[in-house]
């Protein structure tokens, strides 16, 4: 396998409403990682981005995002209609061919113009689910109830996830919603989509993230603290809630095994916890114990720029390694309702 | 100066979905007051799908009647329904395993309140009087409160199509550069921006220079004259589709304003005959009277000129030779 | 780097409306045929890559989620590519990369569009009134090409007739117009001057799929593989001062990178046939020039000479092309798999005799996205 490292990264704050365009949001980040590494645009061999037309309500919206990457003279570029974490996956795979040295990966989304709960039922089966307006929040409620049914978690556990995450978010300059509030206080709030309360949900955010990948020797030349991607895998669960156990993620378990995440200690796990019960389901599937620091950034509960949120997990985990606060970390991204699709990335420090 | 109102727009289309024989059978059942699952290696899957979820093999069309009663396996009480939900008052989404089925169906339960809901409770299908060959033709209620709801429908044959009107509302303020461009139009002036790096003049500007990746500010704004050259055009024969208001052919042109480096696209030409219209033609924008100018149509994605321009008038100057226009095309 | 080969090809019948199929059913027709061709089942597949044009065409967001079960993707990696009209070829290339990386051995790739569920002109116009459609966007550039190259007006009509005649030999093609003629094309309504109705692509439902595998897998394949010799993609900013929209630099650079990777120095002679993305008739000569298959101003002469006909010395769109079938998101993949079909010798009535090296191509957006691949009957063809 080719050694591939993250050599530069950048993210915007999570904004409730960013009033300029999505290309503008991205452009600053692209310029930042280029400046940091001293690379010229023409020295980037491959560019790949993730975004979603329906967020901005405009078919082909992704085309103008190319403006931010600099595509003149022409560039080798591609796009996935998925979270930027899947762009990272394809970028990493592309680098394995061994013929390119650098890759720019981006994820961006502005949720503020639309109404996510009305837009995202369109992710669901177009015949049986979408016409019901079956949205991710409602599905998260159903999934949370399934978790309660197993007796493996309680509403207090959900509140504890929220309390810890929002408190951790206080030290994250990019967080949007933070608080110092106890589980007891949280449990006094009314239900929103039972057994979830409003605080069990992520905020609506605008934001973007960018990472720059480089191959072994080039990576070492570009930065003193490369963060190596030791593996990346993603897996799908069944789309039909009746055909799966909503509290288990066998696909993710397969990915974790394949990546050998338990073969060495994990210092930090940045998980795409969009709804607080998801943390419990993810930790169980990944076998993460109390010794693993979960979402020191506060996670998506403190800021959830859809289409970038997964890539932000990678950025957060990599940052901790680059700063020497962690040696080995995992980052997780999710797509679809009820954790239908999950991506896992193992990161390590060291020259 | 007050800012212009946020732009609100609706992305709306009535999709017509061919449903295939399996979803079609389920929807036909809803029309006829019956619920079906499909047999798959000894299990009954409801709602029915076309294939074995384990192996991917296509399933034989072996349908099994299920319901109308069932058990709630999980649910979420929806305190604040969205416009897209089946009920506008609080209700529950639930996973319901219908009697005779081995898998659960996700659907809506109408109940008096959250206290009426519990895991393991029994519910029963209720049919809407007016059914539209869609999953929303049915809903569920606690079995105790169920009534005989089925009113025969008149449809015949198998349901092959299900309609789904998708209508999404978006609202956002204009970007800063777009807002100043819009205000310019209201004042009868084209406002563009000069890139501090390349010197190129963009109108309307997206607020950045894509060639140099430079974000621009108000200090980069520049006013342009209302004269320019036609650099491209299409004679549009309107195709009819949902939401289309155009019926007659018209010209849509790109005009490169004097001093600009990017053309003003999407300019409707309604009163210059097609036979006389050509690339290279010199034209002048004739603005409407101030009170008649309107930029409501302008969004961040669609610049245009709103309804600020009455018409583009030929200036009568000699045409600009086409070789001088290369690259100015839209 | 692992070598990648096409060992399975599947297509649905392209049509105005696939009446009896759901989207699940449609993609499964192509996927199952590709698996059958490769004598594999879903359980043999390591990863799936899907592609299609904007989600708004069917009103289904991120369809890899709702199609996961139908494509046997549960428990597996599946990802979705979207690069406008070029997406079909971009998706094929993405899937190919998965194999070449050595990380996946057998990859299923599927592209589709179910245009009849929605309306592409509506989507192209951003859901607003006054959409100029794809033809309206390309017409000015086509006029500019005609003016630059001094091509006679019958060239467009000729391509329209040639591709529809080829389509008569392709059972999967949407349009079968046995009595097509130059007269009929030029008398058909003018949609976007200079494009007549019959010089434009139809709106189709359809799906296309391929099974890709590494060298070991290709050895075990039941039928002759098509080896992917090279692939390339290029993108340029959609609008900027000085952009050449007739012969975009991204198209030229994409072709250069492709030929270089393949070791091709004289594409016109070293490539035996091409499936080019020609949604409007004039794009045949435009891409012949735009992808360096001939000199500037020579494209229309090549078309005029009959060289691009089936039986000519550089056949183009033997299958009938986009002008005969256009399930948008799949159209680029169809170009790629038709090229593969030619070098596998499985193209039936439209087989180019002895085809050894073939080109598959797609473009998209405002002709600012390009994706191309070259396939061969040999793993390392000498030129």
Describe this structure in words.
The complex is a heterotrimer of chains A (351), B (330) and C (383). Chain A has helices at residues 22-37, 53-56, 62-69, 84-95, 116-119, 136-150, 155-168, 183-187, 216-222, 250-259, 276-286, 309-322, and strands at 4-11, 46-50, 77-80, 102-110, 191-193, 196-197, 206-215, 227-236, 268-270, 293-294, 328-335, 341-348. Chain A has 351 residues and is of the alpha/beta class. In chain A, the strands form 2 sheets. Chain A has a 10-stranded mixed sheet with strand order 3-2-4-7-1-8-12-11-9-10. In chain A, strands 5-6 form a two-stranded antiparallel ribbon. By secondary structure, chain B is mainly beta. Chain B contains 2 helices and 20 strands. A 5-stranded antiparallel sheet of chain B has the order 7-6-5-8-9, with no helix packed on it. In chain B, strands 18-17-16-19-20 form a 5-stranded antiparallel sheet, with no helix packed on it. In chain B, 45% of the residues are buried. Chain C has helices spanning 23-38, 87-100, 120-124, 133-149, 154-167, 182-187, 215-220, 249-262, 267-270, 283-290, 299-304, 328-344, and strands spanning 5-11, 47-51, 78-81, 106-114, 190-192, 195-196, 205-213, 226-235, 273-275, 357-364, 369-376. In chain C, helix 2 crosses helix 12. The interface between A and B is large, with 65 and 61 residues.
């Amino acid at each position: 396998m080719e050694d591939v490292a993250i050599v530069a990264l950048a993210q915007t704050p999570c904004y409730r409403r960013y009033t300029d365009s999505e290309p503008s949001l991205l452009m600053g980040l692209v310029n930042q990682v280029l400046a940091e590494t001293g690379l010229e645009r023409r020295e980037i061999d491959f560019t790949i981005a993730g975004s979603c037309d329906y967020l901005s309500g405009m078919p082909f919206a992704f085309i103008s995002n190319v403006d931010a990457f600099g595509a003149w003279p022409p560039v080798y570029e591609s796009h996935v209609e998925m979270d930027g974490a899947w762009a990272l996956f394809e970028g990493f795979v592309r680098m394995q061919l061994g013929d390119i040295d650098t890759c720019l990966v981006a994820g961006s989304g502005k949720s503020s113009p639309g109404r996510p709960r009305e837009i995202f039922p369109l992710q669901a089966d177009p015949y049986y689910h979408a016409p019901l307006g079956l949205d991710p929040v409602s599905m998260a409620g159903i999934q949370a109830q399934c978790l309660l049914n197993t007796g493996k978690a309680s509403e207090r556990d959900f509140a504890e996830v929220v309390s810890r995450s929002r408190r951790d978010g206080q030290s994250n300059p990019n967080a949007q919603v933070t608080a110092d509030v106890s589980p007891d206080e949280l449990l006094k709030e009314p239900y929103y989509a039972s057994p979830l309360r409003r605080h069990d949900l992520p905020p609506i955010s605008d934001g973007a993230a960018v990472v720059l990948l480089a191959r072994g020797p080039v990576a070492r030349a570009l930065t003193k603290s490369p963060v190596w991607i030791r593996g990346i895998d993603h897996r799908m669960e069944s789309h039909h809630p009746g055909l799966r156990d909503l509290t288990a993620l066998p696909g993710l378990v397969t990915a974790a095994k394949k990546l050998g995440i338990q073969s060495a200690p994990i210092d930090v796990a940045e998980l795409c916890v969009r709804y607080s019960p998801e943390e419990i389901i993810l930790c169980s599937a990944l076998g993460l114990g109390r010794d693993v620091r979960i979402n020191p950034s506060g996670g998506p509960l403190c800021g959830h720029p859809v289409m970038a949120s997964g890539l932000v997990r990678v950025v957060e985990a990599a940052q901790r390694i680059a700063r020497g606060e962690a040696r080995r970390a995992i980052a997780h991204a999710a797509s679809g309702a009820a954790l239908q699709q999950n991506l896992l990335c193992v990161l390590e420090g060291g020259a | 100066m007050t800012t212009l109102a946020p732009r609100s727009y609706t992305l709306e289309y009535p999709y017509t979905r061919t449903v295939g024989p399996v979803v079609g059978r389920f929807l036909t059942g809803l029309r006829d007051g019956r619920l079906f699952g499909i047999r798959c290696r000894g299990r009954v899957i409801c709602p029915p799908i076309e294939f074995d979820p384990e192996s991917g093999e296509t399933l034989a069309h072996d349908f099994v009647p299920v319901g109308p009663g069932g058990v709630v396996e999980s649910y979420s009480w929806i305190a604040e329904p969205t416009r897209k939900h089946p009920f506008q008052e609080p209700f529950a989404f639930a996973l319901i395993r219908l009697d005779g089925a081995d898998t659960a169906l996700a659907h809506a339960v109408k109940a008096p309140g959250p206290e009426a809901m519990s895991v393991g409770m029994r519910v029963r299908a209720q049919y809407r009087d007016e059914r539209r060959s869609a999953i929303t033709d049915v809903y569920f209620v606690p079995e105790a409160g169920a009534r005989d709801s089925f009113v025969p429908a008149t449809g015949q044959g198998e349901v092959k199509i299900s309609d789904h009107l998708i209508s999404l509302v978006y609202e956002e303020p204009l970007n800063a550069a777009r807002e100043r461009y819009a205000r310019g139009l209201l004042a009868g002036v084209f406002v563009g921006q000069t890139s501090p790096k390349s010197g190129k003049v963009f109108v309307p500007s997206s607020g950045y220079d894509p060639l140099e990746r430079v974000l621009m500010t108000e200090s980069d704004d520049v006013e342009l004259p209302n004269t320019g050259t036609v650099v491209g055009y299409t004679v549009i024969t309107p195709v009819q589709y949902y939401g289309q208001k155009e019926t007659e052919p018209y010209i849509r042109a790109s005009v490169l304003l004097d001093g600009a480096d990017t053309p003003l696209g999407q300019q409707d030409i309604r009163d210059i005959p097609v036979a006389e219209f050509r690339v290279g033609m010199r034209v002048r924008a004739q603005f409407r009277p101030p009170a008649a100018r309107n930029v409501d149509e302008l969004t961040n994605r669609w610049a245009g000129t709103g309804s600020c321009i009455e018409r583009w008038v030929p200036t009568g100057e000699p045409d600009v030779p086409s070789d001088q226009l290369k690259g100015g095309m839209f | 780097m692992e070598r990648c080969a096409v060992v399975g090809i599947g297509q649905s019948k392209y049509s105005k409306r696939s009446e009896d199929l759901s989207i699940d059913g449609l993609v499964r027709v192509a996927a199952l045929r590709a698996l059958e061709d490769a004598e594999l089942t879903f359980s043999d597949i390591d990863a799936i890559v899907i592609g299609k044009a904007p989600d708004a065409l069917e009103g289904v967001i991120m369809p890899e989620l709702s199609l996961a079960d139908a494509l046997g993707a549960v428990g597996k990696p599946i990802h979705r590519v979207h690069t406008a009209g070029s997406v079909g070829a971009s998706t094929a290339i993405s899937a190919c990369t998965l194999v070449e990386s050595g990380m996946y051995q057998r990859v299923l790739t599927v592209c589709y569009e179910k245009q009849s569920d929605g309306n592409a002109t509506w989507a192209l116009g951003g859901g607003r009134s006054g959409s100029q459609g794809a033809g309206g966007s390309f017409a000015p550039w086509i006029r500019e090409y005609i003016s630059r190259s001094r091509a006679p007006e019958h060239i467009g009509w000729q391509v329209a007739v040639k591709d529809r005649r080829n389509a008569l030999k392709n059972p999967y093609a949407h349009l079968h117009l046995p009595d097509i003629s130059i007269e009929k094309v030029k008398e058909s309504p003018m949609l976007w001057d200079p494009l007549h109705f019959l010089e434009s692509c139809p709106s189709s439902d359809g799906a296309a799929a391929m099974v890709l595998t590494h060298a070991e897998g290709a050895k075990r394949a039941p039928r002759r593989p098509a080896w992917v010799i090279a692939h390339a993609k290029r993108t340029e900013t959609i609008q900027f001062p000085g952009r050449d929209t007739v012969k975009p630099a991204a198209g030229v650079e994409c072709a250069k990178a492709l030929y270089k990777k393949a070791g091709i120095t004289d594409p016109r002679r070293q490539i035996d046939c091409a499936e080019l993305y020609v949604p409007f008739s004039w794009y045949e000569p435009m891409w012949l020039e735009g992808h360096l298959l001939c000199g500037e101003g020579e494209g229309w002469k090549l078309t005029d000479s009959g060289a691009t006909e089936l039986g000519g010395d550089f056949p183009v769109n033997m299958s009938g092309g986009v002008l005969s079938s256009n399930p948008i998101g799949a159209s680029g993949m169809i170009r790629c798999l038709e090229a593969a079909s030619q070098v596998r010798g499985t193209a039936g009535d439209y087989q180019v005799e002895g085809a050894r090296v073939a080109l598959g191509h797609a473009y998209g957006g405002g002709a600012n996205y390009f994706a191309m691949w070259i396939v061969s009957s040999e793993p390392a063809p000498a030129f």
